Amino acid sequence: MPHTHTRHGSSGDDLCSTDEVKIFKDEGDREDDKISSENLLVEEKSSLIDLTESEEKSQKVARPDHSPVFNKLDTHTTSFNMGYLVSPYSYANGAANGLPVTMANKIGLPPFFCHNADPLATPPPAHCGIPPYQLDPKAIGLTRPALYPFAAGQYAYPMLGSEMSQVASWHTPSVYSASSFRTPYPSSLPINTTLPSDFPFRFSPSLLPSVHATSHHVLNSHSAIVASSSKQDCGSHQDSTTNNRYPRNLDTKNTSSNQSNDSSKDISNDKKKPHIKKPLNAFMLYMKEMRAKVVAECTLKESAAINQILGRRWHALGREEQAKYYELARRERQLHMQMYPDWSSRTNASRGKKRKRKQDTNEGGNNMKKCRARFGLDQQNQWCKPCRRKKKCIRYMEAMNGNGGILEDGSGMDDHGSDDDDDDEDDDDVKLNGSCGSVDADETANKIDDDAESLDHGSMSSFAQSPSTTTTSLASPLNMINFINPTTPNPAALLINCSATEQQQQQRSTSVSTTSTSVSASSGSGGTTPSTSSTVSPVTTGMPGINSSIPGANCIPGASGTSSSQTMLLGNRFSHLGMGLSPVFTTTSTAGTGLTTNKLEPFFGNNISLNNLNNSQIPIPVMPNIIRNPIGANPRDINNPLSINQLTNHHQPSSLLKSSFSQHLHQQQQLLNVTHMTTTSAVNNKNKVVVASSNRNDATTTAMMSISSHHAEKTSAAECHSNHEKNTDHHQQSNASGKTPSSAGATETGAISVS
DNA sequence: TCGCCTTTGAAGCGT
DNA sequence: ACGCTTCAAAGGCGA
């Protein structure tokens, strides 16, 4: 969307813009029917947001601007009627006063902000912190109950053991729990509900109410300011000058301006001038918040891997949850803009010439800047993921060299598979004429494009991008989708429980998680082969017993015998499968009987409106002709005509797909004793990778499945903006064990992955 | 020591 | 208007 935000503009008008609009716009984009009830809900929310902002504006107008913060506090106090606008964080410690954990973290006051919060139990003496701004007593005094007070039990899965609960916690919207914000910030404070929860938590204490501010904080520059020379972690440095992300602009701007009299001085000042960092966007805020949790749960330390996980989780978040972060980000930008009216991202951009030069050199040397330029629109399958996303394509050459044509994400490897299907992602520019879907579908997909991309991107695409990616993908929450399938423990879950060694193995063995539907493959030792994922495996839902039948899951990887690169490739392709509507074949088996019934459940992914979820529950005895070609399916498949169109259109799977699927199917059949999956071609669209993990016992798997289902449904509900959103959890739980991945798929996975 | 990786989003610049 | 690029956080890893 166009950027409405003008940095130098005065404040208010653009404040409302981007985030909310974007969010809801996305919603609208995703859903074909904008008039759907879900949208109505969204619109309502949106209107609320607008209203909130309008209130803010009006208040600003009414009140002289003593300080942005002041206004913000005040306005937010009144404006935070919206649950998701307000940070609904319920602060576990329940301290009456305190800063939001995140804020505390930013503030970085060790003495006061102890993780234990004991010190904070009693607000520091007023003298400890003299906020530059007068705080509105109202803001301080008001207490706001958590808007999303998820009871502990809400995400507590009774059926789950502690272990599973932990897993479940993955999906627990951190936003709604105090812990979520607290985790990343060990030094978190008790969060003061009295403060506007939305208050920009990254800002320097000086901006905060006096409650916890200390004198040195007051003097501190904003946390955003860091030594230009080094990449300092604002949180890590307790130094008075670097504690806070955003130092007071007075410190930076004024000092710099005073110092700069001549050009030489300016130069030197530029170097000395504290580096004002960009305000964090919603995702960054989310990452900061959730990183620690992910690290703790997954025992992963590598940020790249964690970020992948977080990216998927981000997509898995409900819109409302995301909206919260968007709101926070918006406020940060707002505050940042107020603090540094003259600041521009360009300022920082000028600093980072190195990287650009480097890229330039690469690009210049290889002239590989864009895949589009290189391959043209006709060969989108050759494009790397970033290019598909219409972003930079830096590593293309490397990937190509390494893989011999395999794109970095591997998703692009249509060579192996499909022709066209794969990517339509970019269909913005070109509509694929392939078998993939109708033009209409493409158009529809295009509408959804951004959203879908992001979803896919977060959810699936990353799998094959790089080894590391693959590795992380295992751990990614996205894989949680796999839980839907009792047989496939979520890699993430595996990682959670796995020892480091196990994790490494897991990482090595890339499991492809396709969409929610199920993909999976993972062998503890062997890498999972894409082929495995490629094959369609019936989704087994709610059948814990299936697990036992699939001990051989491990064999899957080996069976295909595909190269690692291929594996990656396939994995990506499959990752896409989940996107968009796709029939989900649910295999219901009676424990011990070995009988299985295949049920086609349309997976709605983002396009829930297209289908009635209730209908999806209806078992379909015969394998539908509806086929999606999984191969080359990009995670962003939502855009992919395959995702939606294929559901409605019958496609002839490519021979390659057929073969791969047949092979995979065959394997799956053997493993699962599923007799009904005979028509490979029919299945092409939806692959479900059944992940079998030797690591988990059936009970665990079952539990995981329940969780995933639960989460998925919840997510889907969120995306659908269904009014039932709140109820889904319960419903899900009841259903989770049951069977219908469809809803689950529709959700998080769905959106992200789906089944 | 520095840059990369990896994610999403925001913003600026260029076409 | 669109596309491309950079930067924001984070910490391990490699050069």
From TrEMBL:
Ranges where the HMG box domain occurs: 276-344
Keyword DNA-binding: yes
Biased composition (Low complexity): 252-262, 509-542
InterPro entries, sorted: Catenin-bd_sf, CTNNB1-bd_N, HMG_box_dom, HMG_box_dom_sf, TCF/LEF
Name under which the protein is recorded: Protein pangolin, isoforms A/H/I/S isoform X7
Gene that encodes it: pan
Superkingdom classification of source: Eukaryota
Sequence ranges of Basic and acidic residues compositional bias: 710-732
Cellular localization per UniProt: Nucleus
Pfam families according to UniProt: CTNNB1_binding, HMG_box
Compositionally biased tracts (Polar residues): 229-246, 733-755
Lineage: Eukaryota, Metazoa, Ecdysozoa, Arthropoda, Hexapoda
Organism encoding this protein: Drosophila kikkawai (Fruit fly)
Family under the similarity heading: Belongs to the TCF/LEF family.
